[in-house]
Specification:
It is built from 19 helices and no strands. Helix 16 runs antiparallel to helix 17.
């Protein structure tokens, strides 16, 4: 009998075999998409039980499987206890020395993330840190101060707030610079364990925000890379709150990419993670409506209705002191809008128009980007219902928001959809002029 390092590590992270298999499968999907493995391996609870067996020999994994296991556990397969008892054809695959192949962090694999390629100046600190850090980065005794971390955390919060009001189109560049500097602090600085945990949590926050800003800017490939990076960091550090947030973002993007089933899978995995940290009801409400959007995109009205009902039930339980800042946008106006978007995807145009009109009236100036998205969907719903007058009104308001500084590419793309929907009605009063305005706004 022999202890199983893999089982002990899994349990230390509070993971069941089923949850670990689900996370390994999701990680394998991303690594295959990024061509870091030649063929996507499969994972099952039965296979996990064999690897965690207390009886040797344990099966030695295939090379692609090893890459995923080592990335997930941040340990070599030898350290996971899978190096003993190698026989037959697998014997030639056993490495002679331990090999650790974690998913690279951003600063370790610049070539894997095109947005990070560029001049060396990208590594410079943000201007507001220059006075306090000049020469520090090249010093062998660069001690990180708590006030630096606090400033960066406030910057991250400010960027998230700006995204809600103006969109993320102009935010991904400064966010990338901040993230690179945080990684530089982690790699080169001196700090205690407590401050180190704060730095890693901050890096995760910047990374998932950067994914969201890239998504809002229409940079979908880069967004998926950053989300993958953030989710990997969450798995390695056991940060279930970061995993919940990132998977929620991934579910939303999947809907826009017309990958409804993937959105449902991401949302459900996020719900599993939310249970691991006993998330408050605002989180569970958000994840339920994300699942509903996935069901709506594939036309599953029954499952969508059930998820919408869960979202409203959780939301109506009220706020909590534990609500994370990334759920504060989910007010009455936004949840109403998200339900309206579900109804629109299900083809329930009249009901969608009513909900989206109500949401637009409830939106405030602090959530202008969300109001712009709502107006775009409202216009589309009105076209579907044959209400061209209200479509013109909603579109005119959306264009005005873009002209006054909203930088969401998603909102611009919605205008293109509206344009195509209005073309058949070009002879109706006001439509011809509006089509010209749309073309000017999206040019």
């Amino acid at each position: 009998m022999s202890r199983s390092p893999m089982r002990e590590l899994r349990k230390s992270r509070n993971r069941t075999q089923a949850l670990a298999v689900a996370e390994l499968t999701a990680l394998a999907d991303r690594l295959a998409a990024e061509r870091r493995v030649t063929k996507k391996p499969t994972f099952t609870v039965r296979q996990m039980s064999k690897w965690e067996s207390e009886t040797k020999p344990r099966p030695y994994p295939h090379p692609d499987t090893r890459v995923v296991l080592e990335a997930y556990f941040h340990r070599s397969v030898e350290e996971l206890g899978l190096c003993g008892g190698i026989t037959g054809a697998n014997a030639s695959e056993a490495p002679s020395v331990p090999v650790v192949t974690p998913i690279p962090l951003i600063e370790q694999s610049v070539s894997a993330v095109p947005l990070l390629a560029g001049r060396g100046g990208d590594q410079d600190p943000p201007p507001w840190l220059a006075q306090t850090t000049t020469g520090a980065a090249n010093s062998t005794d660069w001690k990180i101060a708590e006030d630096e971390v606090d400033l960066l955390r406030e910057a991250a919060d400010d960027m998230d707030a700006q995204d809600q009001q103006f969109g993320g189109g102009r935010l991904w560049r400064p966010t990338r610079a901040h993230l690179l500097w945080v990684h530089h602090m982690i790699d080169r600085g001196i700090y205690d364990d407590q401050l180190g945990q704060q730095l890693h949590a901050l890096a995760g926050k910047f990374t998932t925000s950067l994914g969201w800003f890239s998504y809002d800017a229409g940079l979908h490939t880069q967004a998926r890379q950053y989300f993958s990076e953030a989710l990997n960091a969450a798995m390695l550090t056991g940060d279930d709150a970061l995993a919940s947030r990132t998977l929620s973002n991934m579910a939303r993007q999947a809907v826009d990419l017309n990958k409804g089933r993937e959105a449902v899978r991401f949302a459900r995995l996020a719900q599993t993670h939310s249970g691991m940290w006993n998330a408050p009801t605002r989180v569970t409400a958000l994840l339920s409506i994300r699942e509903a959007q996935g069901h709506a995109r594939v036309g599953d009205a029954f499952s969508c209705e059930a998820a919408i009902k869960r979202a409203w039930t959780e939301w109506e339980r009220g706020t909590d002191d534990r609500d994370p800042d990334w759920t504060t946008f989910l007010n009455l106006a936004e949840l109403t809008c998200l339900e309206g978007m579900c109804r629109l995807d299900l083809g329930q145009t009249a009901r969608a128009q009513k909900l989206l009109a109500k949401s637009e009236q409830l939106q405030d100036v602090a959530h202008s980007r969300n109001r712009g998205m709502c107006l775009g969907r409202l216009s589309t719903a009105a076209i579907g219902a044959g209400d061209i007058e209200h479509s013109i009104d909603a579109t005119t308001k959306a264009i005005e928001l873009i002209r006054t500084g909203m930088s969401s590419t998603r909102a611009v793309e919605q205008l293109k959809i509206i344009h195509d929907g209005l073309v058949p009605h070009h002879r109706a009063r006001g439509v011809g002029d509006l089509l010209e305005e749309i073309r000017a706004a999206v040019a």
